[in-house]
From TrEMBL:
Subcellular localization: Periplasm
Organism whose genome encodes this protein: SAR92 clade bacterium H455
InterPro entries, per database record: DiS-bond_Isoase_DsbC/G, DiS-bond_isomerase_DsbC/G_N, DiS-bond_isomerase_DsbC/G_N_sf, Thiol:disulfide_interchange, Thioredoxin-like_fold, Thioredoxin-like_sf
Domain Disulphide bond isomerase DsbC/G N-terminal intervals: 31-92
Residue ranges annotated for the Thioredoxin-like fold domain, each copy included: 124-248
Pfam families tied to this protein: DsbC_N, Thioredoxin_2
Annotated protein name in UniProt: Thiol:disulfide interchange protein
């Protein structure tokens, strides 16, 4: 009976030892794969910055984010990759895997992010819903959405603007939108610029436009207006105020 108990204990210890070796081996392989993947990519395109995201939902592939570019799915040996959208097949629909992950990221970002560096248009009364809008002053649909901000405010929807000059940080669009953020009256200046009124550009050194632009890129923003809800949902492009209110569950009749 005692010998049997000793044998069981030895078997358990052997199993634990094998398990620990397997885990260490798996961790070493993962680290080696990361180093090899980034090394191979950087050797071919040293001008690009690659960030190792981790294992993808696709077995045998890892996700690598190109800064300011697409998400790559790279084989574990670093020898092959493909880019583009990866979809999960469910019973009812095709689900964009990256968009699903970005929803969580966007939700977490705006749940903790302050509004000190945003231009905010608040309702006069109770705030019933919030939209975070990456905007550009030279975008026609951004102007169209901005013209409906009073209507959105009247329905209790708060509009929080972040800057996203589509032409980039070395452009007239950047200078114009940065002028709004540098103004002593940012709300009025932004409205004036969006309405096409001539305003002398005044770009201050500590403006947040570059940070907003980088944040937008990391959250999947590729164009404007890009509306992000507090639950992380991204609505690309213009939507009429009434349609936004319906989507947010806010009554269009005040």
């Amino acid at each position: 009976m005692q010998n049997s108990s000793i044998k069981v204990k030895r078997n358990i210890l052997s199993f634990i030892a094998i398990l620990l070796v397997s885990l260490c081996s798996a961790q070493w392989t993962m680290a080696a794969s990361e180093k090899e993947i980034l090394g191979n990519l950087s050797a071919v395109r040293p001008d690009l910055k690659f960030e190792f995201v981790g294992e993808s939902v696709l077995p045998g592939f890892y996700a690598v984010q190109v800064e300011g570019g697409p998400l790559l799915y790279v084989s574990a040996d670093g020898g092959h990759f493909f880019d583009g959208n990866l979809y999960q097949i469910t019973r009812k629909q095709f689900v964009d895997v990256r968009e699903l992950a970005l929803n969580d990221t966007r939700r977490d970002v705006f749940a903790t992010r302050g509004t000190d560096d945003m231009i905010v248009f608040k309702p006069a009364g109770q705030t019933k819903a919030i939209i975070n809008v990456f905007t550009d002053v030279d975008c026609g649909y951004c102007r169209k959405l901005h013209n409906e901000v009073p209507q959105l405010n009247a329905m209790g929807i708060e509009v929080r603007y972040l800057a996203f000059p589509r032409a980039g940080l070395n452009s007239d669009s950047y200078d114009k939108i940065a002028t709004a953020w540098c103004s002593d009256t940012p709300n009025e200046t932004l409205t004036a610029i969006k309405n096409g009124k001539r305003t002398s550009t005044s770009v201050c050194e500590d403006n947040p436009v570059a940070d907003h632009y980088s944040l937008g890129g990391s959250l999947g923003v590729t164009g404007t207006p890009a509306i992000i809800l507090m639950d992380g949902t991204l609505i690309p492009g213009y939507k009429p105020a009434a349609e936004l209110a319906e989507f947010l569950g806010v009554s269009a009749i005040n």
